Amino acid sequence: MLNISHSIEPIMPHNQLSLLLALSITTLAACSESKTPVTSGTDELVVKIGAAAPLTGPQAHIGKDNENGTRMAIEDANTKGIIIGGRKARFELISEDDQADPKTATIVAQKLVDAKVNGVIGHLNSGTSIPASRIYNDNSIPQISPSATAVGYTAQGLKTVFRVMSNDGQQGKALGEFAAKTLNAKNIAVIDDRSAYGQGLADEFIKSVQANGVQIVAREYTTDKAVDFTAVLTSIKGKHPDLLFFGGMDPQGVPMAKQLKALGLNVKFVMGDGGYTPKLLDLAGDAADGVYASLPGVPLEQMPGGKDFSQRYEAKYKQPIQLYAPYCYDAVNVMIAAMQKATSADPAKYLPELAKITHSGVTANIAFDEKGDIKSGAVTMYQVQQGKWQPLQTMGGNTTISAH
């Protein structure tokens, strides 16, 4: 049996015991507090926003415009100090160049997935947005395109796809009605670049003009890399159209406008949103005069926040908006608003909020239908007059929404 009295240290004085107990309690409390997030500085929520557009090649000027609009929204959000789920969010842009190429777009999409982005703004083109969308959907990552207008993009039945501008069903219908009713065209020739965007828009345009009793006298094709259209335009000239519609982008629209003039082909030349750029004015020169183009949405100066956005954009980037930057800005902010409503940047948690969001943006009041298309999309027709794009008329949409 142990002699316990020999194994115990002498009893310490009462005042020393009290001091030791007090120090122990203080230390335990400090340890406990150190495990609890105290400030946003020590518990920052990093949210990665992916973006994809052509940053090199013939469409780079439009792609950089998309990137600029996206970056501007992210920088504004960081300045505001947005809180998501009780934590201060810091948004990071991960921007990739898809070169307007469908195959490259799938590589870029997988790269963004591997980077664990919380959402994607893009792609610019329909031909890149559609194949990329399947990869994002397989990984449950929300994708908001600011500029892909092909009907097929949102017709796939994917729950992760959205867009913040009108689709080609709406745009093609408006273009066809404008050609038939306002321009009084009777015989129309159509060329498209065989891209998902160009061909899709041309198909919708033809459907619309034929519904209005207009005859299609020629349907021709080219590519989104071509620059010489002399042969196809000469063939069309022999069929005596009074209007030529081109489904494609401005890198082809510029030489086509010039060659129309050189061949003496006296027709009204109409494009979709791919032609409505300052670059077309700069490069086509006098050949641009009289050209028509559509753009989903209302004119910039009539957008709820258009004037302020334009001034800030030009001050920041020292150049005018090319095309889709305001829509990119809205796409980012719609995504962030959904995160705030869900109190989470987890794609699975904020996706349901995104689907039912209502957001007052720069371009419009944004809400999505069951496919992910923007509701009540407007389309505006423009014409080049004295070297400038001038709005002619706006069809559809709600132009009376004011920004908050």
Query: Which residues form runs of ≥5 with pLDDT under 50?
Result: 1-41, 399-404
Write out the CATH superfamily name of the largest domain. Response regulator
Overall mean pLDDT score? Answer: 89
Measured on Cα atoms, how large is the radius of gyration?
28 Å
- Lateral arrangement of strands in the main beta sheet: 8-7-9-10-11-14-15
Percentage of residues in strands: 15-25%
Order of helices and strands: HHEHEEHEHEHEHEHEHEHEHEHHHEEEE
What is the number of helices? 14
The SS-based structural class is alpha/beta
Top keywords for this entry?
single chain, 404 residues, alpha/beta, Rossmann fold, 2 domains, 7-stranded mixed β-sheet, 6-stranded mixed β-sheet, 14 helices, 43% helix, disordered N terminus, disordered C terminus
Describe the protein's architecture and organization.
- The protein has 404 residues and is of the alpha/beta class.
- It has 2 domains: 194 residues, Response regulator (Rossmann fold); 144 residues, Rossmann fold (3-Layer(aba) Sandwich), CATH 3.40.50.
- It is 43% helix and 19% strand.
- Strands 8-7-9-10-11-14-15 form a 7-stranded mixed β-sheet, with helices on one face. Strands 2-3-1-4-5-6 form a 6-stranded mixed β-sheet, with helices on both faces. The protein has a two-stranded antiparallel ribbon with strand order 12-13.
- The longest helix has 21 residues.
- It starts with a helix and ends in a 9-residue tail after the last strand.
- The relative contact order is 0.12.
